[in-house]
């Protein structure tokens, strides 16, 4: 099976001017490809730039530089109608189902709005039928059409958010922390729904989350972000079984597991300190100030993301020869 | 052998709230003990009553609209119905509390030194200088670097993890015998969460206080708790040692919850187990088992309205279920 690229992101940067001068490099030169039908997970801690990346892909935040190609066409050069067409094909699910639904609109109007905007299923009857279909697709009774967001539980609201996202029949869905506001038992319901929809509708996902266990479960490949950069990207099994970057290793070692025997023997790599400010990132490798494996070169050389193991397993760390500049030892 | 006197003894605690839609029965008869020096985790999802069950002990539930009944004995005193000046003397003193969101539990317009100093001066009657020294000592203890120079900083200068450390320092300032932690790591990143859990465990070893840790995160519980109480619809539905509850869960809800977690490093089954449906509305609780509607083990429709009692299935392990759920049917 050959993988067809759906979206190719190259050297994407999102920089914000900071008050009092200086630049916050929220996303600082990331490149990745998403293939048709796969799920690419993006994990990282708060402030790593994962959500900004998601918003930049839809140009809900304008990228500073770099390219975003959808089926080979650079989205960054598009305006007006052409841009709207892209936003029909690339859609987004947001984190907070309490904040992302307009409390004064009925569920039917919320799901019908994207149809209105994109001029799909015109005519009252057709639109209502489409809304009912979408509700059924996400496992809600069509009677929900006349209800309002405050009458729904968190899980039901997130289903409405998903139905709205599906309304325009997108190819790619960017899901930004879609389950983190939900209770554990409801998280599993929503993840199963997303997987069913992917299988039935042939969807491609970019799944952004801080929950490593959930990302591993749902993704085919996983990218790890730290301070605006991708520090490692690999097939999910590879990433979770043989992580290469010291940050990924620390992150994985910190996930608590619901088994007291595992917990009693686990050895956590406790990172010291906090993530440095993106306003003033350290010279050399961004992770050097907290890295347990740091050595001299790390404080001056900035390692590129390069292939360090089989199956296109890439990492950005000077421990690996592929990331060191030619001529150095 | 004499039984060790529990530090905290909660008996048939009930909390209800008057709402526009009717009376919400949030906590419906909680009974448990916490022994000196042990860590007890209360686990549950939103609306299970886990937070209200504990904040009501400290007199932090406003009455009305709330109504708190039952008993909660702490160091020889019943906290329920105790006059507010008695509670004030216990709260933040013998019994300390840390909350979920360290961003909102610190006052943004007062320096860290002022806020930390306030709690030690209030409860221990120290002078300004003594309070500063004690504050530095406490900040050192919770791992805040260059502590003295940070006393004059405002909360916004601290990261989330650092603020939670400050809250812990504040909680420890009076040498409490019980530390109540309400989702203290939920707002934190996973690497920071690991730091905080490690810190609290170290401090417990050093000072020997008991901890009542309220959380929805079963992973954190596994590494931290000695005993676990699982709550659902305002009741304890399973209790036991951490091994009992997490390795040999007997209630269908506990089983479902554990089975619905994706496990890092373990290859996935294609679908996660998901508990169908939603918890019952606290305004309209069913007369019988509150989990009945969602339960895949229920046997006899005629028992729908029977409310199961908490019963011991092995020493120290109790479950509120009508049935003996077979071990091998684990989800």
Low-pLDDT stretches of chain A: none
Considering residues with a beta carbon less than 8 A from a beta carbon on another chain, report the largest interface and each chain's count.
A-B, 44 and 46 residues
> What is the average per-residue confidence, as pLDDT of chain B, rounded to a whole number?
87
Number of helices of chain B: 10
Helical percentage of chain B: 25-40%
- Please tally the helical runs of chain A, counting DSSP H or I stretches of 4 or more residues: 10
Quickly give the structural class of chain B: alpha/beta
Name of the CATH class of the largest domain in chain B: Alpha Beta
Helix content of chain A: 25-40%
Short synopsis of the structure:
The complex is a heterodimer of chains A (329) and B (331). Chain A has 329 residues and is an alpha/beta fold. Chain A has 10 helices and 12 strands.
């Amino acid at each position: 099976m050959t993988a067809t690229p759906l979206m190719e992101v190259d050297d994407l940067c999102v920089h914000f001017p900071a008050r009092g001068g200086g630049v916050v490099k929220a996303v600082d030169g990331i490149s990745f490809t998403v293939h048709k039908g796969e799920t690419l997970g993006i994990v990282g801690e708060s402030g790593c730039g994962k959500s900004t990346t998601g918003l930049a892909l839809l140009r809900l935040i304008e990228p500073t530089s770099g390219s975003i190609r959808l089926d080979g066409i650079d989205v960054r050069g598009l305006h007006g109608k052409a841009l709207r067409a892209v936003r029909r094909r690339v859609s987004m699910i947001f984190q907070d189902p309490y904040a992302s639904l307009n409390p004064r609109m009925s569920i039917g109007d919320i799901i019908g709005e994207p149809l209105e905007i994109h001029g799909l299923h015109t005519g009252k009857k057709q639109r209502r039928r489409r809304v009912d279909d979408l509700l059924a697709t996400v496992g809600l009774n069509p009677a929900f059409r006349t209800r309002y967001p405050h009458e729904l539980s968190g899980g039901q609201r997130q289903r409405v958010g998903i139905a709205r996202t599906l309304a325009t029949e997108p190819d790619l869905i960017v899901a930004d922390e879609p389950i983190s506001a939900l209770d554990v038992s409801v998280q599993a319901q929503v993840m199963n729904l997303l997987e069913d929809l992917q299988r039935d509708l042939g969807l491609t996902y970019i799944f952004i989350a801080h929950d490593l266990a959930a990302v591993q479960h749902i993704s085919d490949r996983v990218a790890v972000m730290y301070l605006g950069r991708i520090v490692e990207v690999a097939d999910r099994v590879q990433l979770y079984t043989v992580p290469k970057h010291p940050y990924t290793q620390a992150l994985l070692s910190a996930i608590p597991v619901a088994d007291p025997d595992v917990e009693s023997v686990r050895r956590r790599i406790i990172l010291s300190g906090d993530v440095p400010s993106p306003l003033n990132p350290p010279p050399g490798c961004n992770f050097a100030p907290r890295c347990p494996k740091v050595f001299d070169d790390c404080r001056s050389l900035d390692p590129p993301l390069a292939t360090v193991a089989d199956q296109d397993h890439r990492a950005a760390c000077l421990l690996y020869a592929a990331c060191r500049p030619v001529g150095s030892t | 052998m004499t039984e060790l006197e529990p530090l905290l003894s909660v008996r048939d605690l009930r909390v209800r709230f008057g709402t526009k839609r009717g009376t919400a029965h949030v906590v419906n008869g909680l009974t448990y003990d916490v022994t000196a020096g042990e860590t007890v985790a209360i686990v549950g999802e939103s609306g299970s009553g886990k937070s209200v069950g504990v904040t009501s002990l400290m007199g932090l539930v406003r009455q009305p609209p709330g109504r708190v009944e039952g008993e909660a004995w702490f160091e020889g005193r019943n906290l329920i119905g105790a006059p507010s000046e008695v509670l004030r003397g216990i709260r933040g003193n013998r019994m300390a509390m840390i909350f979920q969101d360290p961003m909102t539990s610190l006052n943004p317009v007062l320096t860290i030194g002022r806020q930390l100093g306030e709690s030690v001066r209030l409860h221990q009657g120290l002078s300004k200088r003594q309070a500063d020294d004690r504050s530095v000592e406490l900040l050192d203890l919770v791992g805040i670097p260059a502590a003295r120079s940070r006393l004059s900083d405002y909360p916004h200068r601290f990261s989330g993890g650092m603020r939670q450390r400050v809250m812990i320092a504040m909680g420890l300032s009076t040498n409490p015998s019980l530390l109540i932690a309400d989702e203290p790591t939920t707002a934190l990143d996973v690497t920071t969460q690991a730091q905080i859990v490690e810190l609290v465990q170290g401090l417990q070893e050093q000072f020997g206080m008991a901890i009542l840790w309220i959380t929805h995160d079963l992973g954190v519980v596994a590494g931290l708790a000695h005993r676990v109480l699982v709550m659902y619809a305002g009741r304890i539905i399973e209790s036991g040692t951490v091994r009992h509850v997490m390795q040999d869960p007997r209630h269908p809800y506990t089983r479902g919850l554990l089975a619905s977690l994706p496990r890092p490093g373990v290859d996935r089954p294609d679908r996660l187990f998901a508990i169908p449906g939603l918890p019952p509305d606290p305004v309209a609780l069913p007369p019988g088992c509150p989990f009945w509607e969602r339960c895949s083990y229920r046997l006899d429709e005629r028992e729908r309205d029977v409310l199961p009692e908490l019963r011991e299935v092995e020493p120290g392990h109790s479950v509120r279920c009508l049935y003996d759920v077979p071990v091998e049917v684990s989800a």
